[in-house]
Amino acid sequence: MFDDLKYNNFTKYQSEFRVVTFLYLSILLGIYSEDQTIKYLTMKNNIHDQVSSYYGETLQTSDDLKTNACCTDIEYPRHIKDILSQLHDETMSKYYGCGLTIPTNLEGLRVLDLGSGSGRDCYVASKLVGKEGHVIGVDMTDEQLKVADAHKDFHAEKFGFANVEFQKGNIEELGKLDIEKESLDLIISNCVINLATDKKAVLQGAYDLLKEGGEIYFSDVYSDRRIPQDLVDDPVLYGECLSGALYWNDFLTISKDVGFLDPRTVSSNRITIEDEELMEKVGNINFYSVTYRLMKLPKLESDCEDYGQAVRYKGTIDHNKDAFELDDHHLFEAGRIKTVCGNTYMMLHDTRFKEHFDFWGDFSTHYGIFEGCGGSAPFNTENTNSDEAAPCC
Ligand SMILES: C[S@@+](CC[C@H](N)C(=O)[O-])C[C@H]1O[C@@H](n2cnc3c(N)ncnc32)[C@H](O)[C@@H]1O
What we know:
It is a single chain. 35% of the residues lie in helices and 20% in strands. It is of the alpha/beta class. The chain folds into 3 domains: 2-47, no CATH class; 54-295, Vaccinia Virus protein VP39 (Rossmann fold); 309-360, Ribosomal Protein L9, domain 1, CATH 3.40.5. The protein is globular. The structure holds S-adenosylmethionine. The site of S-adenosylmethionine has 26 residues, from helix 2 and helix 5.
């Protein structure tokens, strides 16, 4: 691992050198002023340094958090509780995530955890992917990486196989990690992307590393409006995963821009802030902990279109015998035939879920928009012959 750290530090300096050279050339050519350049470099480094020192030094355990933004209370399924009960105490006490970011049907997958912290979710995924799978955790904070790395042997012994590695790196520069493009089946992340200064770079990097049919399944914090700069600059609000949060609609736009064409919400919960000082600072802004799943399927359409297709869940996914939940509005009960839009059909047919479903139909006939699944026809569909409703042409 320490060779990895040295390598990543070296490549980090190479890239910083390139950026600095570019910016100084820009000053010489009059593109940016010296003030603008220095401000940009300082702002980016300051936020990363602040976040690292918050998670590496300020917080010692999850009890030190001032809000539940990073640690929302959720009910874990029994098999996840069983795995959590086997994890090392230090891995658990330095967990600062929100929500459950582990989807179903993981056996044999290659998984990456963005901002893996003390490694809790990596070790849960390790057990679920099994000895044929592989899990990589990436984090930029040395103290957290050290804790994660220290308990690799402990977990390998518990589970009977070793399939986890940790790499030091910035999730805004995923292309620099020692991971081949299009080699991952699944990317998970638990309350981290809000801490990144360039969220689009994170999503673009994730898209590039995923195989076609792969997905990023992650929990994070979103706000109901854009956050004013003075709150973004507040180190505690930022470190507590609040003021770096994206306005949810900006998140959807960015996701679609990088190629995740139909983001699906799996669950969402309002975040409560108990600390009075922080509550006063955020005023009317509401924050939500949301789990999204974004699938890399280039043929997805911008809306749910109806091709007359249907599917039936076979009840064969582990721990999901009775029903499989794709997202917050698609629950597939075992044995029941359900009509689906073209996008949902692809999410089940062109992914690791295929073997667990029966499928009917194809894309040869289009029947219009799939009502009740997002979009609806923008016209008055009533057929009236009265004079008042005369057509304009
Ligand atoms: C809220 S904690 C969540 C940690 C972990 N996912 C968990 O559930 O315990 C945020 C973690 O993300 C890491 N982090 C934040 N920004 C990062 C970035 N740009 N690159 C890599 N790691 C980052 C921090 O070092 C910290 O360990």
